């Protein structure tokens, strides 16, 4: 059993990525992990834009990261990179925030044209923050994911197998923590 954190980096109120993060979180909960969820869009915009490290909600998000052995970070692809909202939050984490942690980077995007964005843009930032193991990233396109009115998410069958493989690789890479620990 491992403490995990899913993070959605989309500023959108109807975010596919947020739904994807919830879906992956539910999968991981089903596998016996404890999973918390953080939507960056729910953090105070003032604190994010003014780099207010002392804001209580920002501090709580830092604590959530510190408590997690592994993180699933989901971002929309924006302008061939990850979202500015996610970057603003990552900028407020301590430089060693991801020390020893395992991270699965996921993205949703309009097309496959910028599939490399996770690896050339987000991965170096995660590694600069000390991540022990950034597992193979995975991108889901808008044609492969639909969010229903009730917030549930439907993945096209073409996306299911590869997402499951990414989640499995992440689970395997997590440090083992016994229930008694
Ligand atoms: C401002 C903006 C920039 C975008 N830039 C790209 C892009 O460069 N490449 C791409 O494939 N999709 C791009 N998209 C499409 C989004 O990545 C895609 O719709 C994604 O699923 C949105 O995720 P969300 O619903 O979680 O916010 C962009 C969308 C917006 C709103």
TrEMBL record:
Record-linked InterPro entries: Flavoprotein-like_sf, FMN_Rdtase-like_dom, NAD(P)H-dep_FMN_reductase, NADPH-dep_FMN_reduc_SsuE
Pfam families listed in its UniProt record: FMN_red
Positions of transmembrane segments: none
A single GO BP: alkanesulfonate catabolic process
Key words, A-Z: Flavoprotein, FMN, Oxidoreductase
Oxidoreductase found in the keyword field: yes
E.C. code: 1.5.1.38
Signal peptide range in chain numbering: none
Domain annotation NADPH-dependent FMN reductase-like: ranges: 4-140
UniProt keyword Flavoprotein present: yes
Name of this chain's protein: NADPH-dependent FMN reductase
Gene responsible for this protein: ssuE
């Amino acid at each position: 059993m491992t403490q995990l954190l899913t993070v959605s980096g989309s500023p959108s109120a109807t975010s596919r990525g947020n739904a994807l993060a919830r879906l992956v979180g539910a999968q991981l909960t089903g596998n016996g992990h404890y999973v918390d969820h953080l939507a960056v869009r729910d953090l105070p915009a003032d604190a994010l834009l003014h780099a207010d490290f002392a804001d209580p909600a920002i501090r709580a998000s830092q604590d959530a990261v510190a408590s997690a052995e592994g993180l699933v970070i989901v971002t929309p692809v924006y302008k061939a990179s990850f979202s500015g909202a996610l970057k603003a939050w990552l900028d407020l984490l301590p430089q060693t925030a991801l020390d020893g942690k395992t991270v699965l980077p996921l993205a949703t995007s309009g097309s496959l044209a910028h599939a490399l964005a996770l690896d050339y843009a987000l991965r170096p930032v995660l590694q600069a923050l000390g991540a022990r193991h950034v597992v193979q990233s995975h991108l889901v396109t808008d044609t492969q994911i639909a969010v229903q009115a009730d917030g549930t998410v439907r993945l096209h069958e073409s996306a299911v197998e590869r997402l499951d493989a990414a989640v499995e690789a992440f689970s395997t890479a997590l440090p083992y923590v016994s229930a008694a620990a």
